[in-house]
């Protein structure tokens, strides 16, 4: 579905490459986390999938098309097959929830009957059917992100790109968003999500592609945020290591490290300071299993 072949790009001739000889394949229907420190190249990679830049080196194929061969005038059509969700939601503040989602269909010239039937289905999928007539200013951050997801999937894209979709949200709200993304993925949409959220990655156990200085240093199935095994760093002469955990226990997440440090200072048990496990939170009402009309819509897509 998405293939990078030896892709390198620098924003400026004198800059180090933002991506450096990156190769990977994402199959249709996969869910992939992109991880790596700030500046490692995650957003650049997502932008290249969207054909925001022409690629100076290497080849990128998206849904069978060589992205470099998509002429500028065809880029809008090319992007119809890709939904995008950003950290900062990017909703139109003056439009209602319904109108924000409907707008994504209007720009593609969909007729009123289609909009009237599709928008409610997608709002139901993200659990916002009762907030259709509110504006974004009347919604919580998590609800706004659900509107953004509804807008991203209303045209039934084969690929959903998410750039830190939970970056502005608390852990419980983030878990609700992840339940929705997981469900969209189970309905057949390929999902690529850039994130710094170790709890989410450690809970979901999906494929992880890790970038470091623009290079892929890890590409692992059902993986943790931080590698549990020594990994040879791409481009290194010898087996340089990315961070490795040394015991068999679950690796410390960012929040757990903070809780442990705080507990060490005040002498309390870390268990009490821990946030509830994300798995439990993923079982919250947003993850309800009953199929919705939007599921059927997506199922129809897969056939
Ligand atoms: N528009 C731009 N112009 C010049 N350099 C850029 C631009 N966007 C990103 N870069 C540089 O490219 C490199 C990769 O940036 P990118 O935004 O892809 O990283 P990231 O992994 O998404 O970071 P973060 O986790 O902070 O979002 C960085 O060195 C960054 O400074």
Folded structure, characterized:
It is a peripheral membrane protein. InterPro entries: AAA+_ATPase, ABC_transporter-like_ATP-bd, ABC_transporter-like_CS, ABC_transpr_LolD-like, Cell_div_FtsE, P-loop_NTPase. It is a single chain. By secondary structure, the chain is α/β, with parallel strands linked by helices. Strands 6-7-8-3-9-10 form a six-stranded mixed β-sheet, with helices on both faces. A four-stranded antiparallel β-sheet has the order 2-1-4-5, with helices on one face. Strand 9 and strand 10 form a beta hairpin. Helix 3 runs parallel beside helix 5 and helix 5 packs parallel to helix 6. The longest helix has 16 residues. The radius of gyration is 20 Å and the shape is globular. The two termini are 17 Å apart. Bound molecules: adenosine-5'-triphosphate. Adenosine-5'-triphosphate (ATP) binds next to helix 1.
